[in-house]
Amino acid sequence: MRLVAFEEVDGPHIGVITDLGVIDLSRLDPAAPRDLGAVIKACQLEQIAALMAKADDTIHHQIEDITIGLPVARPGKILCLGLNYMDHVAEGPFDKQPFPAIFMRSATSLVAANQPIVAPAVSETLDYEAELAVIIGKKCKNLTEDNALDAIAGYSCFNDGSVREFQRHTIQWTMGKNFDKTGPFGPIMVTPDELPKAATGLKIECRLNGQTVQSSTTDMMIFPVIETLVYITKAFTLEPGDLVIMGTPSGVGHARKPPLWMKDGDLVEIEIEGIGILANPIKAE
Fold first, then answer.
1. The predicted structure's pLDDT at residue 93
2. CB of 43 within 8 A of CB of 190?
3. Are residues 198 and 110 in the same domain?
4. Which CA distances in Å does 45 have to 52, 58, 77, 271, 282?
5. Quick check: is 73 in a domain?
6. 118-173: per-residue pLDDT in tens?
7. Which end of the chain, C or N, has fewer beta carbons within 10 A?
8. Do 119 and 64 belong to one domain?
9. SS (H, E, C) the chain
10. Is there a cis peptide before residue 240, judged by omega within 30 degrees of 0?
11. Contact criterion met (CB below 8 Å) for 22 and 62
């Protein structure tokens, strides 16, 4: 399934995207769940599948006409990988890491598709990072290679917007990775059955004002999805609604000469094959 959280005048709704448009679950059944993140956290995606079994060819919306929300509005944990594409490692000051480099983002840093990324007043060094988002759908600890994929509810796009000046203030990246409204996430969640196993081999790109600035494939990750989930759950209990953000390929703004920063009036797009396009304008604080 291809699922979208969106807002109507009466609150949140859940839509299922087909080739013709968006089916609004609340139009199928007024008692249908309305909060996609809550459905994921409750491990109840099968309810949506059951509702869709009753659907006909009636379409209620086109995706360009709805106000898209975050696929998970209030994720519990947001765990991110740094330095997870070798070509990105090569363009920075760090060496290849023997283990996944994990850092965390906060929910206040997130922003939905089509909503503005806020370029902070304190620094001009706002950078883009195209990334694959893994949405956890099952409570799990000590995953193995055999069962890691069972923990995934779906996949989405992510832009790990980074204020590089603040990221470099110390050896800890937290400040630069958590400015308010700098982490776009969405526009939809795609369930694993719609994509190759572990979302491998998908083209991933970033475009800034229509110019392609990053282009790679997800099979170029140093630590792919399965290996990453196995590693993370040695320490963390992952819970439904948690996010794991899988790192970015080369081409980021800080590595360019001169550097290429996102600024007021820009449009940034993250596209992942089989998932879609996450587009956001940039607005000065």
1. 67
2. no
3. yes
4. 11, 21, 20, 25, 33
5. no
6. 999 999 999 999 999 999 999 999 999 999 999 999 999 999 999 999 999 999 99
7. C
8. no
9. CEEEEEEECCEEEEEEECCCCEEEHHHHCCCCCCCHHHHHHCCCHHHHHHHHCCCCCCCCECHHHCEECCCCCCCCCEEEEECCEHHHHHCCCCCCCCCCEEEEECHHHEECCCCCEEECCCCCCEECCEEEEEEECCCECCCCCCCHHHHEEEEEEEECCEEHHHHCCCCCCCCCCCCCCCEEEEEEEECHHHCCHHHCCCEEEEEECCEEEEEEEHHHECCCHHHHHHHHCCCCCECCCCEEECCCCCCCHHHCCCCCCCCCCCEEEEEECCCEEEEEEEEEC
10. no
11. yes
Query: What pLDDT does 92 receive?
Result: 66
Asked if residue 35 and residue 111 are part of one domain, the reply reads: no
- Structure-token match 């480099």, residue found: 101
Taking the alpha carbons at both ends of the chain, their separation in whole angstroms is 36
Listed as ranges, residues in the chain with pLDDT below 70 are 92-95
Q: Are residues 100 and 240 in the same domain?
A: yes
What are the residues facing 277 on neighbouring strands?
A: 271
Q: Do 134 and 9 belong together in one domain?
A: no
Range of the domain at 274: 78-284
Q: Residue 132 and residue 274: Cα distance in Å, rounded? A: 11
Could you tell me if 138 and 221 lie in one domain? yes
